[in-house]
Design brief:
The structure is a homodimer. Chain A is an alpha+beta fold. The first copy, chain A, has two domains: 16-168, 60s Ribosomal Protein L30, Chain: A (2-Layer Sandwich), CATH 3.30.1330; 180-340, Phosphoribosyl-aminoimidazole Synthetase, Chain A, domain 2. Chain A is 28% helix and 25% strand. Chain A has helices at residues 19-33, 70-76, 83-96, 116-132, 194-200, 206-210, 219-228, 266-271, 277-283, 299-308, and strands spanning 50-55, 58-66, 101-111, 136-144, 154-165, 180-185, 235-238, 255-258, 288-294, 313-320, 325-329, 337-340. In chain A, α3 (83-96) packs parallel to α4 and α7 (219-228) packs across α10.
Amino acid sequence: MESESKSKPSSYAQAGVDIHKAESFLTRLKVSARRDGHRRLWRGSGGYASVYPIQGDSAVALSTDGVGTKLLLAIEQDRYDTIGIDLVAMCVNDLLCVGATPSVFLDYYAMGALDERVSDLLMEGIIEGCDRASMLLVGGETAEMPDLYDKGHFDLAGFAVGTVKRDSLITGDELKGGERIIGVSSTGIHSNGLSLARKLIKEDSPLRAEMLTPTAIYTKPVVRIFSEYPGIIKGLAHITGGGWTNITRPKEALGYVIDKHLPVPEIFKHLGTTIEIEEMYKTFNMGVGLCVMADAEEVEHIISIFKACDFEAMEIGEVTADGPALIIRNAPGAEGEIFIHTKAT
Amino acid sequence: MESESKSKPSSYAQAGVDIHKAESFLTRLKVSARRDGHRRLWRGSGGYASVYPIQGDSAVALSTDGVGTKLLLAIEQDRYDTIGIDLVAMCVNDLLCVGATPSVFLDYYAMGALDERVSDLLMEGIIEGCDRASMLLVGGETAEMPDLYDKGHFDLAGFAVGTVKRDSLITGDELKGGERIIGVSSTGIHSNGLSLARKLIKEDSPLRAEMLTPTAIYTKPVVRIFSEYPGIIKGLAHITGGGWTNITRPKEALGYVIDKHLPVPEIFKHLGTTIEIEEMYKTFNMGVGLCVMADAEEVEHIISIFKACDFEAMEIGEVTADGPALIIRNAPGAEGEIFIHTKAT
């Protein structure tokens, strides 16, 4: 139940984004797109990335994403050099979640009229993002559409490709309950929940600039774990649209109990003064950009590699056989337990 | 030199699209994106598609594109079921040009607010396009951005992946001069030059509806040639943005002389009353959606396969060693010879 507010939206739906309508659209789409050939895929389109076999035990993993209305913040602040990092981050963090090693990236960039300063800065960000993500920018499309985009407006979409061997694929199937959940720090709000946050944080607030901090890219530590400790990761969850409900994506039938917490960035505390705590966790990353699931004896290795790559990481909870559910205990600022009944698909 | 017109644009630039600015942006981008790793690519980002090796002699070919302002025509005519076919076509026809067999597709779909009727029809088109292109739709992103897109507006980007073996790659390097050029019919204006055409063809003209005819998808005949006559295609050119200058893309240092012509669709005759003939050929497909280059003795095989797949196809000219140039002789409605000095890159 959401409380009504005349002046400020207190949920994503009130900010003009109808997640339920989008979900029912995606369900219909999945049915109508289904073909026999989909059986060839090692991972279907429901997960973080699709995995398509190429030869023998080699496959490519594919993901696409945009940066949502974070780009309106870039326009408002006349700051174009980092939003490309977000674009790459949103795509590449999804790829990692199926066990893929990122390799190449393509972008789609559409605008009203090409402004050379703006487009050079945008591309600088995409290239920086690719460097951070260990990917090559190998193609793209630049489209001028004067009658579709207002002057100064633009959109960006990214396509990321990674490679994965059959026995390195992370499917989540191995999760049984009993595995530990490691939370890895985000760099702030990342690239989701911005339609709502933009409406709640005033234009003169110092948090407004902070909202543009680029999304963390987890390639380096994750690929290092893939190579130094192959097979120890049993589930990976990129915390993006849908907030912490993403934690359950590796295997939705299970339970996920979170009872320890990384520091919650200031921006979420501020947003929490208007938005109900459950809605906060269902919308934002709350300081956790990635969750890694592994057996207890591997936790230390995993944490040490994230720390060596300048991320904060700690054990924050446990996978249980009692699902489908996401249970958040001892959440900063929340009383009691937050129980989110997630669906099993 | 372009003639000035106060009322109607007679070139792409006057329609608000600055191709030279876009080209100089892309040149700067290519330089700044360059990394050592790009040497691994079998085909770089300058061509129709990038080719990235996966294992042994297997690689993936990657392309991305949008439909440009053709989607504004779809909105204007409240006809949403075919623009997705254009999206797939623009991507997949590029993939074919490097010798790849199309396999999977992802879409990015952004809009102001999700309208269930419109989005279902758009996806119907994308799925129909994938069926025609022999691809599976394996993923996508749907983004609601109420503050970026006007009510009823949306954008679409596509990402296509194909597979190619090293010895099936079409690089254009084998072209020496002397090869024949086969022109394959388009289905009309396809998805380029629409910003200009929309301004020249009145809203009450019957040609307005015709402009929405979906772009031809050449997968079936081209893949059939790949499999029945491997190696005979030495160059493939998808005639898209830049019109017939695309004919020279397989190997820009050479000359390309066109002296026979497929029928020119009515829409181009109409546009030709306002636009100079050279500008027409530099902007539109003029009835030729794809050019195939092969030795004289293979022409008949190639034409027969296109005809079996319901395309018109005929020998329209020849590759010569005298380049870089595109020479168009006996063009319907043009006097003398059109000489387009193309750049060698």
